[in-house]
Structures are given as structure tokens and as C-alpha cells.
Write a structure and sequence with these properties.
cytoskeleton; 455 residues; cilium; rod-shaped; Tektin; coiled coil; single chain; Tektin-like
């Protein structure tokens, strides 16, 4: 600025010189005129007087002008010195402020990066937990599916057993204890299927909620990763100095938001959103752990209940088989004794037949004797002891034959009854054999392939 002031003084000096030359110039002109124009002396004198009058008039103004120029130059110089000092102070203050602002910005960057890192770490932990829970719930879903599939075999076997037992005949086709246990077992399996299906639906819904929470956490983590990378890269930017090229680059100015303007999220909103996501994940974890415990309990309960009911039904089959076998053994014993009696009765009938045959000859002889003795002459036709004895013999033989015939008839009726009883016993034994075959060979053997195990 001082140099500028000195350069501004040069034109003022030249101007003074010109004014001095103008002041001296009239005298030289006047002498030239007087020497060249002697004839016009009056005019020259008049002009000289006029010039002197002008010099007397403008000389104070010239001095005042010089003083004013000096004062103005001094004022400008003082201003320039003051401006230079202010400029130095401004540069120093701006430099110090820039350093302080940069330091504060770095501190804020470190704090912000630390905050993002902290919440990112918390979200990473929740994401890891959610992924682990998702795998565990997938395993739970598989277990429930296997348990549901395992219910098909007991249900199929139960239906087949009921169908087999409907093939029983006669008195054995009764709604016994086995039938009731099979029906109750059927209800148990169907109830277990309904419970497992409902639980499977709950697990699927929980997995959907876990995936939703996982997607939200992953989106939040991705946003925080981008923000963290931006802040880390931005915080490491170095302060740039002036351009070393001859032509300085134009200064870029970025719009600065006013304090009254509100951004999308405040730090408290941002932190609240992070906490909300964490609380959502924690709630999902808590619900999932509770559901896992419930699923484990349901699977164990279903397996235990089905196993208990199967054992009860198997024991009912065992008891029923023992009952039927006992009844069959009793029938077989009766049949054996009946057959023995039939053989004895056959021998008795045969003996009666022989006895009857043996009595026909004596009766015929007795009757012939009686008829022969009736042919005696009239005077000799005496009712003597022989006639009386023959009559008694005849009556005794007739009575014996009657009794033998009656006994033979009774024996033959008893024989027919024994034969009928034998046939009934054999039929009942066949029924029992069929019932035993159905329960022991078909049902029990089929049920041995059903193994209830927890999944």
C-alpha cells in the first residue's frame, strides 16, 4: 500500500511543475511579444497586468492544494498501515480459527466414528444372533416336519388294525378294551398332528419375523458401513494450500444450511432408531427363545404321549390275546372231553344195539312157546305155572326191550347233542383262532414296526 501511495504522488509532482511552468511562461511570452511587436506595447502591457493578477489570485490555492495533497497522502498512508496491520491480524486469526475448527472437526469425526462403530458393533452382534436363531429355527422346522411325517405311520397302522379287527367273527366281533384303546390312540395321533401343524405354522411365522428383523438390521448395518467409510475417509482429508499454478483455481463454495433448517434426522433421532432396531432384535430373540422352548416341550410331550398311548394299546392287545387264548384253551379242553364222551357214547349205543338184538331172540322164542302152548287140546289148555312164567318172561323181555330202546333213543339224542356241541366248540375255536391271528399275527406284528421317538 505504501508503494501504491508513492506511485500516486508522482502525478502530483508533475502537476506542480506544470503549474510553475505555466506561471513562468507568461513572462517569457511577454518578452517575446515586446521584442517582436513593439508597435503593440499597450496590448502587451495589458496582457502582462492580466497575468500578474492571475498569479496573485491562484498562488494561495496552489499552496493549499499542495498541503491538501500531502495531508491526503498521509491519511491514505496511515490507513494503509492500519489496513496492513489488520490484514496481518486477520490472517493470523483466520489461520488460528481454521486450525481450531479443524481440530474440533477431527474431534467430532472421532466421536462420530466411535458412535457409529459402537452401534455397528451392537448391530453386528444382534445380526449374528439372528442368523444363529434362524438356523436353529430352521432345524426346529425340520424337526416338526419329521414329527408330522412320523405320525403318518402310527395313523396308518391304527387304521389297518381297526380294519383287521372288523374282520372278527361271531361273538369275538365285540367292542372290547383293545378297540377302545385303538380309538383313543387314533384321537391322540390326530390331536398330535393338529398341534404339530399349528406349532409348525408358528415356527414359520417366527422365521419370517426373524428374516424381516435380519433384513432391517442388515440395511441399517449397510447404511452405517457407508456412513463410517465416508466419515473415515473424510476425516483423513488433508488441508489443501494455495494452488501453485499461475492461474489460481476459482474457490468452490458449498451451500451451508442455516441453523434454523432441520435435517432429516437429529443425533437423538438417529440413536433412537438404532435403539429401536436393537430392541426389535432383542424382542425377536426373546420370543424365538421362548418359542424354541415351547417347540422342544411340544415335541417331547407329543412323543411321550404317543409312546404312552401305544404302550397302553399294546398292553391291551396282550391282555386281550391272553383272554382269547384262555377262552380258546378252555374250549379246546371242552372239545377234547366232548370227543371222549362222544366215543364213550358211541360204544354205549353200540352196546345197546347189541343188547336189543340179543333180546329179540328170547322174546320171539317166548312168544312162540306161548303160541304153541295155546294149541294144546281144550282140556289140556290149563293156565299153569308154565304159562304164568312164560307170560312173565314175555312181559319182562318186552319191558327190557322198551327200556333198552328208550335208553338207546336217549343215547342217540345225547350223541347228537354232543356232536352239535363238538361242532359249536370247533366253530368257537376257529373264531378264537381267527381272532388270535388277527390280533397277534396281523395287528401286533404290524404295530411292532411303529417306533415312537422324539425329534
Amino acid at each position: 500500500m505504501a508503494g501504491i501511495s508513492r506511485r500516486k504522488n508522482f502525478p502530483q509532482t508533475n502537476e506542480l511543475s506544470r503549474k510553475e511552468e505555466m506561471a513562468n511562461k507568461p513572462s517569457r511570452v511577454g518578452s517575446d511579444i515586446s521584442s517582436s511587436l513593439m508597435g503593440d506595447h499597450n496590448e502587451v502591457n495589458a496582457r502582462a497586468q492580466h497575468l500578474n493578477a492571475n498569479l496573485e489570485k491562484y498562488y494561495p490555492e496552489w499552496n493549499e492544494t499542495n498541503l491538501q495533497s500531502n495531508r491526503q497522502a498521509e491519511t491514505e498512508r496511515v490507513k494503509a498501515e492500519k489496513l496492513v496491520q489488520e490484514t496481518k491480524e486477520l490472517i493470523s486469526d483466520v489461520k488460528q480459527r481454521v486450525k481450531q475448527d479443524h481440530k474440533e472437526v477431527q474431534v467430532r469425526f472421532r466421536q462420530r466414528v466411535g458412535d457409529i462403530g459402537f452401534w455397528k458393533s451392537e448391530l453386528d452382534n444382534r445380526l449374528t444372533t439372528l442368523k444363529s436363531l434362524l438356523d436353529e429355527m430352521d432345524s426346529q422346522s425340520i424337526r416338526l416336519g419329521q414329527a408330522l411325517q412320523a405320525c403318518d405311520l402310527p395313523l396308518k397302522v391304527n387304521d389297518q388294525c381297526l380294519a383287521f379287527r372288523r374282520q372278527r367273527q361271531g361273538v369275538d366281533n365285540v367292542r372290547d378294551n383293545v378297540e377302545r384303546h385303538l380309538e383313543f390312540e387314533l384321537q391322540t395321533v390326530q390331536s398330535a398332528q393338529v398341534l404339530l401343524k399349528q406349532t409348525h405354522m408358528q415356527v414359520d411365522e417366527d422365521m419370517r419375523q426373524i428374516r424381516r428383523a435380519k433384513n432391517i438390521i442388515e440395511k441399517d448395518l449397510a447404511d452405517k458401513e457407508v456412513a463410517l467409510n465416508i466419515d473415515e475417509s473424510t476425516s483423513t482429508l488433508e488441508m489443501t494450500g494455495p494452488s501453485k499454478t499461475n492461474k489460481p483455481e476459482p474457490l468452490k463454495r458449498y451451500p451451508i444450511k442455516k441453523k434454523t433448517e432441520v435435517t432429516t434426522y437429529t443425533p437423538s433421532d438417529w440413536q433412537s432408531l438404532c435403539q429401536k432396531n436393537l430392541e426389535m432384535a432383542d424382542l425377536r430373540v426373546q420370543n424365538t427363545l421362548s418359542l424354541q422352548s415351547t417347540v422342544d416341550g411340544i415335541l417331547a410331550h407329543v412323543a411321550s404321549h404317543l409312546r404312552s398311548q401305544k404302550d397302553l394299546t399294546d398292553r391291551a392287545f396282550e391282555r386281550r390275546l391272553n383272554e382269547v387264548k384262555g377262552a380258546k384253551n378252555l374250549l379246546e379242553q371242552q372239545l377234547s372231553e366232548t370227543i371222549v364222551k362222544i366215543h364213550e357214547l358211541e360204544e354205549s349205543v353200540e352196546a345197546l344195539d347189541k343188547a336189543l338184538s340179543a333180546k329179540h331172540g328170547p322174546l320171539a322164542t317166548c312168544q312162540i312157546r306161548i303160541q304153541k302152548r295155546k294149541q294144546r287140546p281144550e282140556r289140556e289148555l290149563v293156565l299153569d305155572d308154565v304159562d304164568l312164567q312164560l307170560q312173565m318172561e314175555s312181559e319182562n323181555l318186552i319191558e327190557s326191550i322198551r327200556r333198552l330202546e328208550t335208553q338207546l333213543s336217549r343215547s342217540r339224542d345225547c350223541y347228537a347233542a354232543l356232536q352239535k356241541s363238538r361242532l359249536d366248540l370247533e366253530a368257537q375255536i376257529n373264531v378264537k383262532n381267527q381272532s388270535i391271528f388277527i390280533d397277534e399275527v396281523k395287528c401286533v406284528t404290524l404295530r411292532q414296526g411303529v417306533v415312537i421317538q422324539p425329534y
